[in-house]
């Protein structure tokens, strides 16, 4: 299915003479074959090569050309489901632990970025989550108390304090620290360049067709031939996962814009990432060249929108929301796109071993925090592949 349509911003930030060179000949056997060359696949390969494993990545498109090129690059430890809501869902111990895993994953992503051959513009930011309506204030207050109780870096702003810090008025806001923004396209390409230097083999335009599991290996039938591997990771993003059972997820679509560069962003405190309490939510960030990226307006349809007119309509709605928040600032759309977006029914990713196939694994970072999920999931899968115990796998397992 089409994963995005419109005029994407991130690919314009990378020199078209990319240094990733896809291979045509493959080895007789790999320790791990990863299906999917987007953010999840790249992070999984990065994590596995640190263990000395021989890895190949296959993608039916070019690398990073799927959902990852439409990713808006917000890295936060807070999730689509608030901590106090997750506590009600899975219990305090597991919920707090999962939030700590996300917090640690942001740190790991920062460390990864510092090892890469190209700068992915990963910049640490605070996040501001404002109350969309007065009725949401108690929920924000409850979330503040849950985060503060468990030691997360958080502040609560009253209506007056929001007005002191930002050029808009809201009834309350929650401020979390230690998050980050990134150029996801440059990040993935930087990771792929890094792992290619570590002898990871990259195969573009190679579609996986069928998999056979044997006692001591798997055979992956593809459009370019048969790959043999000890393990296979499916990091297929919002494409239909090849698992033979229905998992609890919905594929929707969302929209985003990038503005023309803005000369002076001093009105925006610390260039913080901004989002809100209502669902679906509006979210905002800045870029390294002083653009504003805004996203939202989710729709319950799996395929990316085909109509350029409809994308323009949604883009103008996003621009209208921006202008309400920042009156008096000249804002013009430079790029606008729509893309598929996956969400799990319980707001947690699907990561782990196939319930019935011991050599097949899945790294499906569904949700607005997908890059963070992919980072923490890469470490879970690394341990499972190396037969090391990992209690975190229980929270995100496929058959929960």
Automatic annotation (TrEMBL):
<dbReference type="InterPro" id="IPR006076">
    <property type="entry name" value="FAD-dep_OxRdtase"/>
</dbReference>
<dbReference type="InterPro" id="IPR036188">
    <property type="entry name" value="FAD/NAD-bd_sf"/>
</dbReference>
<dbReference type="GO" id="GO:0016491">
    <property type="term" value="F:oxidoreductase activity"/>
</dbReference>
<dbReference type="Pfam" id="PF01266">
    <property type="entry name" value="DAO"/>
</dbReference>
<feature type="domain" description="FAD dependent oxidoreductase">
    <location>
        <begin position="31"/>
        <end position="383"/>
    </location>
</feature>
<protein>
    <submittedName>
        <fullName>FAD-dependent oxidoreductase</fullName>
        <ecNumber>1.-.-.-</ecNumber>
    </submittedName>
</protein>
<keyword id="KW-0560">Oxidoreductase</keyword>
């Amino acid at each position: 299915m089409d994963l995005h349509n419109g005029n994407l911003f991130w690919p314009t930030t990378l020199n078209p003479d990319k240094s990733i060179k896809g291979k045509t000949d493959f080895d007789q056997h790999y320790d791990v074959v990863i299906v999917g060359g987007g953010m999840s696949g790249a992070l999984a390969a990065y994590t596995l090569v640190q263990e000395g494993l021989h890895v190949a990545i296959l993608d039916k498109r070019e690398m990073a050309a799927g959902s990852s090129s439409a990713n808006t690059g917000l890295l936060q430890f807070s999730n689509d489901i608030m901590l106090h809501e997750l506590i009600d869902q899975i219990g305090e111990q597991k919920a707090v632990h999962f939030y700590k895993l996300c917090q640690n994953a942001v740190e790991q992503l920062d460390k990864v970025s510092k090892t890469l051959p190209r700068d992915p513009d990963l910049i640490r930011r605070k996040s501001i989550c404002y109350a969309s309506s007065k009725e949401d204030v108690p929920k924000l207050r409850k979330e503040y108390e849950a985060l503060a109780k468990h030691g997360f870096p958080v502040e609560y702003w009253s209506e007056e304090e929001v007005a002191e810090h930002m050029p808009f008025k809201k009834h309350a806001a929650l401020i979390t620290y230690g998050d980050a923004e990134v150029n996801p396209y440059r990040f993935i390409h930087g990771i792929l360049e890094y792992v290619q230097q570590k002898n990871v083999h990259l195969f573009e335009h190679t579609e996986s067709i069928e998999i056979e599991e044997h006692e001591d290996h798997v055979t992956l039938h593809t459009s370019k031939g048969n790959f043999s591997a000890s393990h296979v990771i499916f990091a297929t993003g919002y494409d239909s996962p090849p698992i033979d059972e229905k998992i609890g997820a919905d594929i929707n679509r969302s929209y985003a814009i990038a503005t023309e560069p803005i000369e002076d962003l001093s009105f925006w405190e610390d260039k913080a990432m901004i989002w809100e309490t209502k669902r679906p939510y509006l979210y905002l960030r800045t870029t390294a060249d002083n653009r504003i990226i805004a996203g939202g307006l989710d729709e319950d349809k799996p395929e990316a929108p085909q109509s350029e007119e409809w994308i323009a309509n949604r883009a103008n709605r996003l621009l209208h929301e921006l202008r309400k928040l920042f009156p008096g600032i000249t804002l013009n759309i430079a790029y606008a796109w729509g893309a598929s977006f996956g969400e799990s029914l319980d707001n947690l990713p699907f990561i782990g071993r196939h319930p019935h196939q011991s050599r097949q694994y899945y790294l499906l970072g569904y949700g607005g925090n997908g890059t963070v999920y992919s980072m923490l999931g890469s470490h879970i899968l690394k341990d499972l592949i190396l037969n090391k115990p990992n209690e975190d796998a229980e929270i995100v397992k496929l058959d929960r």
